[in-house]
Amino acid sequence: MKKNLSTHFTALLLLILMGNPMIAAESKKGIGRVTIDTKLVSLTFDDGPLHNVPQILNILKKHDAKATFFVLGKRVKTQPKVTKQIVTEGSEVANHSYTHANLAELSLKEIRSEVERTQQEVINATGATPTLFRAPYIKYSSEVRQVLEEYKLRE
């Protein structure tokens, strides 16, 4: 499995470096694309930390690359050392809710709990406060955006 993940990652980097550079930007209206002069890529991983994070971090290190890991608070609670390793190795930890619930279907109180609990678990594990948030299933509502504003989290 390690060889396959490394091969796929290397192939992805080569495609990006050889192709037209594009940045995908998520907005309230969806995802847009902007052509740029510099070749860049933003790597993100959702739903972690999972058992393969150390392997992913080794591959990132090998390619002098960084990534953003959108983590679930319940998994950070059970894997604080792996979460800390993400930050220690120069990548970013971002909030992806506590339980991976569809936040657009929850009450304001429940949304706050999902966000706050994850923020606290990440702070406890890493000492860093997440500044980015990605809603599970990319489902946003006005209540979700209200909570993100309260916590100064960017989408």
Structure description:
It is a single chain. The chain has 155 residues and is of the alpha/beta class. Helices cover 45% and strands 16% of the residues. The chain contains six helices and five strands, in the order αβββαβααβαα. The longest helix is centred in the last third of the chain and has 19 residues, at 108-126. It starts with a helix and ends in a 5-residue tail after the last helix. Mean pLDDT is 84; it is low at 1-31.
Rg on CA atoms, Å:
16 Å
Approximately how much helix is present in the residues?
40-55%
Distance between the termini: 32 Å
Question: Which geometry do the CA atoms define?
Answer: globular
The description of the largest β-sheet is:
3 strands, parallel
Secondary structural class: alpha/beta
Strand composition percent: 15-25%
Count of separate DSSP helical elements: 6
Order of helices and strands: HEEEHEHHEHH
Q: Give the low-confidence spans.
A: 1-31
Number of strands: 5
Mean of pLDDT: 84
Give me the side-by-side strand order of the main sheet.
Answer: 3-4-5
Give the helix/strand layout.
Layout: H1 2-18, E1 22-27, E2 30-35, E3 44-48, H2 53-62, E4 68-71, H3 73-78, H4 80-88, E5 92-95, H5 108-126, H6 142-150
Parallel strand pairs: 3-4, 4-5
Antiparallel strand pairs: 1-2
